[in-house]
Amino acid sequence: MTKHIIDAAQVEQHNASQRAALQADYDALGGMLSRRGVDIEALTAKAQTFAVAVPSWGVGTGGTRFARFPGKGEPRDVTEKLEDCAVINQLTRATPAVSLHFPWDKPTDPKALRQQADELGLGFDAVNSNTFQDQAGQAQTYKYGSLTAQSKAAREQAVAHNIDCIELGKTLGSKGLTVWVGDGSNFPGQHNLRGALERYIDSARGIYAALPADWLMYIEHKLFEPAFYCSVIADWGTSFAVAQTLGEKAKCLVDLGHHAPNTNIEMIVARLAQFGKLGGFHFNDSKYGDDDLDSGSIDPFQLFLVFNELADATLRDSAFSPAYMLDQSHNVTDPIESLMSSAVEVQRAFVQAALVDRAALAGFQEANDALQSAQALKKAFRTDVSPILAMARLRSGGAIDPVAAYRASGYREQVAVKRPPRAGASGSGIV
Ligand code: PSV
Ligand code: MN
C-alpha cells in the first residue's frame, strides 16, 4: 500500500468540488473531438500512461551565480527530497520516478532509501554523476576538467566516481547513468580540441565497461557554460559520435536548454531517433540560454513539435521509449508547484501530439501543400486538452487541479515548521 504524504481525504474533497465542472468540460471536448473522428476515451487512457521523472535537485530552490534565495521548508537531504517528489506524483500521477544526482543525494543507507521510495510508490530513473564540482576531501580537482582533464589522476577519479554512481544505482533499482561534464575551455588554444575529445572517449570507455547489461549510458551535450569558448561535448553531433563509438548501450540525451537560440531541436530529435541513438530528455524551457525555466512556459509549440517527432518515431517503432526527465531550476516559485505544472505541460504536449491527424498530414505533405501541412499540426496544438489531462489524473487517483489541491493541503507550511534550515543541507536545486 502506497503511503500518501497528503491526506487522501483532502485530495478527495478537492476533487469533489471540481468534479461536475470537469465532467461538463470533458463532455464538451469529447463531442468536439468525436466530430473530428477522435475518441476522447482513447486519448485519456493514453494520457494515463504518460510518465516523466522528477530531478531530485529540482525540489530545492535553485539560484543563479549571483544569489540563491532559499525557500521555506526546503528538503535538507535525499529522504526529504523523496517526500516532496511523492507529493508531486500523488497529485499529478505523472511522475512515478526520481532522478538522483551524486554525490548530492548519496544515501548513507541505499537499501533504506530504496525502501522509502517503495513505500512512497516511487522508483528511480537514471542516476546522474557530478564531476563538474569539487567535493570536500577530493584528492584531484576538476578545475581543468574531469573526464577530459590533462591530469590522468583527475580523469581516473572522474571515471571511478561514475562507476560508484552505477553501483549505487544498482542497489536503488536504477537502469541508467546520465553523464554530463562541464569540461571545455575558455580560450582559443587552451585545449587541443581533438585531444580533449580523445581523452573524453578514452574515459567514457572505462565507464561504459562497468555498465550492467540492461543499463543505458546517456550522453548529455551542452553548448556552453561553464566553458565559454568550447565545450567538449557541445552538440548532438559530438554526442552522437561518442555514443556510436561506445556501443549499443550508449545513447544521446537532449536537454532542451542546451542549444543555441533558435536551434531546430525537433529536427535533432528526428535525426537521433532515425539512427537509434535518442536515449532521453531533460525537459525545461528557455528564452536565452540554459535558463532552466519551467517546461512549456516560454515556447510550448516547440515542446509540441518535439513530441510530434516522438509520436512519429513511435509509429515507426513501437518499442521506442526514450527516458523523460525534467531538469529545471526554480528560483521564484515553490519548486513543487513548478514541477507539477511542468509535468502537466510535458504530458499536454504528449497528448496534443497524439491528436495530429497523421494520415491527413501525410497527404498534405505528398501534395506539397505546405499551408495545410502546417495547419494540421496547428489544429492539434490549438486543441485545449486540459479536460483530458485532468480526467486522466482523476482516474489515476490524483488531483483535478494539482496546484490548487497542494495549496489547500498546507503542505509547504507544515514542512516549513518540520524542516528548519540546517547547515550543510544538500537540498538546494543547483543547476
Ligand atoms: C547541466 O546544465 C545540467 O543540465 C545537467 O543535466 C546536470 O546534471 C544538471 O544540469 C544539474 O546541474
Ligand atoms: Mn540537464
3D structure, described in words:
With 431 residues, this protein is an alpha/beta fold. It has one domain (52-357): TIM Barrel. It contains 15 helices and twelve strands. α1 (8-35) crosses α13 (386-395), α2 (40-48) crosses α13 (386-395) and α5 (152-172) packs parallel to α6 (193-208). The chain is globular, with a radius of gyration of 22 Å. The protein starts with 7 loop residues before the first helix and ends in a 13-residue tail after the last helix. Residues 180, 220, 255, 282, 327 line the site of manganese (II) ion.
CATH structural class: Alpha Beta
The distinct bound ligands, ions and cofactors come out as: alpha-D-psicofuranose, manganese (II) ion
Helix fraction, binned, reads 40-55%
Order of helices and strands: HHEHEEHEEHEEHEEHEHEHEHHHHHH
Shape: globular
Secondary structural class: alpha/beta
- CATH topology-level name: TIM Barrel
* Chain-averaged pLDDT: 97
**Rg over CA atoms:** 22 Å
In whole angstroms, how far apart are the ends? 35 Å
Major sheet strand order: 3-5-6-8-10-11-12
Q: Which regions contain 5 or more consecutive residues with pLDDT less than 50?
A: none
Gross CATH architecture: Alpha-Beta Barrel
Number of beta-strand segments:
12
For the largest beta-sheet, the strand count, sense and barrel status come to: 7 strands, parallel
What is the tally of helical segments? 15
Report the CATH superfamily. Divalent-metal-dependent TIM barrel enzymes
